[in-house]
Write the structure tokens for this entry.
Amino acid sequence: MTSEAARMEHWDYKLEGRDAFRDARPNAIHHAIVRLERAGKLCCVITQNIDGLHGLAGSSAERLVELHGTNALVECQSCHWRGDPEPHFESFRLNRKPPLCQCGGFLKPATISFGQNLAQKELERAGEAAMEADLVVALGSTLSVYPAASFPLLAAKQGAPYIVINRGETDHDHERYVTLRLEGAVDQIFPLAVDAALTL
């Protein structure tokens, strides 16, 4: 935060992938999750993804916990204002100066950077959701990054059945709290399971 060169490097790094993030669209998994929410069957989505696709698909902010933040917004590091990143990326493209907030604080994409703490409020929301869940499903994760990987186990230890769907090994595969482990492509397994569950 104290280095103009480091801030420029960060904005360059984010700018490099900006078009891909901006043009990405939700997939069948995101839409299946939204169908569960609209059917009143979803307590919470806890994600490490920073692509903003859950919100774009229609997941409500009240039921979405983005533990590592989102590229869909920029955030002031002083006053914590959040807003549309596009004008700030365009400004950086044109003048090569890291954008500032109206308050004079540094702006950056609203993601958690190395060395930055996760938002306490989001951790609390995730913990509360885990304590309330009557079923927990981990989708497409190696379950190796903490504290995110702790929330499904927290729910399972409270008695919630715990389903893991992933292509490849996960760190929870041998946990005694896992009720069902499905190996395969999440985008092929989960939407069909949701369709079946919602037609019962």
Q: What stands out?
A: DSSP finds eight helices and eight strands in the chain. Residues 69 and 79 are 17 Å apart (CA to CA). The first strand starts at residue 45 and ends at 47. Residues 4-16 form the longest helix (13 residues).
